[in-house]
Amino acid sequence: MSEDKTLRREGYAPSNLVVGQRGARTRQKIITETLRLFESQGFHATSVDGIAKAAGTSRSTLYQYFESKEQIFVELLEECGSALIRVARRIGPLGPTRLGFDNLHWWLGEWAWTYDKYATMFVQWANVDTPGTTIRPLVTGFVRSYDARIAERLASSGLQGMDPLDAATAMSSLVHRFNYWRHMDFVPPRTGEELLDGLAVSVQLMLFPDTPAEVLTTVVQTSGRKARLTQPLPMFAAGRPAGPVPEWENRLDGLSPRAAVTVRQIIDAGATLFADRGYHGTGVDDLVAQAGLARGTFYKYFDEKLDLLLQLTHECAEEMKLLVQRFALIDPTDDGTGLRAWLTDYLPFHTRYFGVLRAWQEGTSNDPRLLVTARRMSAAMLAAALKVLGRVERSYPLDLEVAATVLGAIFERMPEALHQQDPERTPGQIAELMATIISRGLLNGGTAP
User: Fold this and answer.
1) Closest Cα to residue 375, out of 279, 246, 274, 234?
2) Can you give the three-state secondary structure of 320-339, one letter per residue?
């Protein structure tokens, strides 16, 4: 047992009456200040000492109530997770009918309202939910339980063409990522209701692709249940001016073949560990151990860990350019052949650069080279998505920019979510399922009313 944990005494649980009101107030103050610090500084930059100081108490007193900041985070996470479960319990029957779509529309609105209420925790959840962390097993356990509950509802609603648990995992990962992007202002400049409508149409068709066009038209235009969205929606992040093209220092330029091999070892180690542990959870010692090199070797070629992230950002962007160009050429009427082939090549890219893509979204660094690159790649993907989505002739309303955002959320989050739900699932199976989801939800021409 560590020295810090020996300071924790029995009797400080919230249900213990011996603590009294003063102890309960202290405990609540610690929770409140932790949440405030998570919001202003982020999980990784918040320290136990900072929490204790903000709460007006000592480090030793804080450890009498909580073993770590991770334990405080878990308690807050359980609170917002319970709120999501309560919303899920209230959903009515789903299906390809006006009532079914209206119930889904309402559910997604309540889901968004819950996200806004606990936005700080959901945002930090997205930032710390990386493999290898102590929080990951708890997050995974909740997500699986939540998806199982949704799967039961989908099965009872007559879902066809997809396994209910697969559909539940796909839907929950998509909706959470969409709300995360909405909170971070990575969405088109639309009202909350317009964003909800676009998301609802996409999810409805993903689940029930035979929904008549008149059902989607009537509910989107006349639904009386307004989404309780509270976050402002400024300019679409991907559409903001990205600034001048950044100057890159490619760490491989001018190296001897032997030195280039060494640098490549470090780069590959960074790609692996940033994906497995996250940027913040990876240290230089971890990197050199993974690469099988000495610490001094790392600093011979990189001034700091950020330099390695920038090198990976550059390489990620170069590969992504080619993928985006190929995606823009996909024919949505070819029975999904082109989409499946593209996804087959995209998934290895996503696996390798998962940590880099997550760092772009988290705002890991304010370095202009990282920010400009992330915005340019987002804008390029948006433009390609709009080209493909624009080739579909539809008989129902769908905001193409919102649909493109939904597509981006699928690409960014769904591969990992599907793998977490079933670690034995092969990349080919993930590509097939993602192609089915995209074809049903976004490339669906619909039936004329």
Assistant:
1) 246
2) HHHHHHHHCCCCCCCCCHHH
Please say whether the beta carbons of 199 and 108 come within 8 A. yes
8 Å CB contact between 93 and 100: yes
Distance, CA of 314 to chain centre: 22
What are the helix (H) ranges across 157-294? 164-183, 192-207, 213-222, 257-277, 284-291
**Residue located via tokens 């409140």:** 32
Please tell me whether residue 188 adopts helix, strand or coil conformation: coil
Which of 6-20, 43-57, 222-236, 397-411 shows the lowest per-residue confidence on average (mean pLDDT)? Answer: 222-236
Contacts 24+ apart (CB under 8 A), 162-171: 162/433, 162/436, 162/437, 165/421, 166/418, 166/421, 166/433, 167/206, 167/207, 169/417, 169/418, 169/421, 170/206, 170/410, 170/414, 170/417, 170/418, 170/433, 170/434, 170/437, 171/203, 171/206, 171/207
Cα separation, 441 vs 448, whole angstroms: 17
What does the radius of gyration of the chain's CA atoms come to, in whole angstroms? 23
Contacts of 184 (CB under 8 A, 6+ apart): 123, 237, 361
pTM of the model: 0.81
Look at 173 and 232; give whichever has higher pLDDT: 173
Residue range 269-299, pLDDT digits in tens: 999 999 988 888 899 999 999 999 999 999 9
Q: Which two tokens stand for residue 346?
A: 């995209």
